[in-house]
Inosose dehydratase
Amino acid sequence: MFDKNAIQLGIAPIGWTNDDMPELGGDITFEQCVSEMALAGFTGTEVGNKYPKDVDKLKNSLQLRGLSIASAWFSAYLTTKPYEETQEAFVKHRDFLYAMGSKVIVVSEQGKSIQGEMDTPLFENKPIFSEQEWHVLADGLNKLGELAKEKDMKLVFHHHMGTGVQTSEEIDRLMDMTEEDFVYLLFDTGHLYFSGDDPLYILNKYLHRIKHVHLKDVRNDVAELVKREKLSFLQAVKEGVFTVPGDGSYDFKPVFEMLSQSTYKGWLLVEAEQNPEKANPLEYALIARKYLREEAGI
Ligand SMILES: O=C1C[C@@H](O)[C@H](O)[C@@H](O)C1=O
Ligand SMILES: [Co+2]
């Protein structure tokens, strides 16, 4: 199974407080969130909207609980804004993560994205990039990836529901158009499965470029409801489309097998946004931790 020295286990704060919908978990403090992550047996996290912005303060709070920062999400607008604007924000983000000791920078293209729109039906309205937008996106990512490399870090691109890079075909296109040395891939099981794509196809094809993993499960019945009722991404999350590995409909065993037999080194980060009033975050973090121990041997 997994080489325990090569893998670090983390969990995202989005199950406690949701960055896309701050009203979800609005009453949960940063301290409760990170304490419960540690209590559930995780050693890392990504950055949420309640985390202290000050590097020393954040480091201290995390060290007290045996946690470190795996990475943090960055929204790029390469297809809709001047490149310089995205670059300036990216460099600040990179430098913050560098100071926190992270090795990967999660980037999502949010130009034309509908993921933050409460009433836009998800499956009917995802953006489709034009030829020119693909070129602008790939060029911009190559440049940002080079800036990440300057600090010995890696840009990992997050394919995502409701964005221009969602499907396997779109991931193939992005991987083809970007430099192997500058642009890597974040593999998120939940987004591929929800999209109707086969996560194993992407995992197998891009193992050499996958440098960060989000483990997210999907409830099939809710995914069906989302399609039937033409719900948006945010409505889907509120309905409970995502959950922790082991609690939903996706079989993670082949993913664990493929990853553990590869040279993958880095984070496996549980990421399951749902309403904390319906799904107690500590309880679900414990379910995920148990599942990883039993099914992945870690
Ligand atoms: O990595 C992620 C970050 C979130 O903000 C996002 O909406 C979620 O679905 C995700 O996969
Ligand atoms: Co993710």
In short: The longest helix spans residues 131-150. The CA atoms of residues 149 and 245 lie 32 Å apart. The mean pLDDT is 98.
